[in-house]
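To: structure subgroup
Subject: Chain for Friday's discussion

All,

I'm putting the inputs and outputs inline so they're searchable in the archive.
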Amino acid sequence: MLQGETLMLQINMEIEKLAKLARINLSSGEKEKLQKEFEAILNYVSALKEADTGDSEKCFPERETFNVTRLDANFHQAGEFSKDLLEGVPFTENGYVKVKHVFE
């Protein structure tokens, strides 16, 4: 077998394996279409592997990475906005929002 035929056979086997895992039935036409698409993708990846990237350090110098997050801190006093919030709801009881029963 030639290398191209071996690759096509492997692709066909992978398509059948994926179809089985996905529990879908593929017609022979659908398999052929997927085989051509997989071949095109693999050829593209092969071309990318062979591409000359040159000296990538000049274009993309190494940078220090760090996590950009805010501090997990409460910047407001407890209850600072409670009065305003409770004034905006229809029913309150003992400083809490009163709602209809959810559970029976």
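Points worth raising on Friday:
Strands lie at 92-93, 96-97.
DSSP finds four helices and two strands in the chain.

D.
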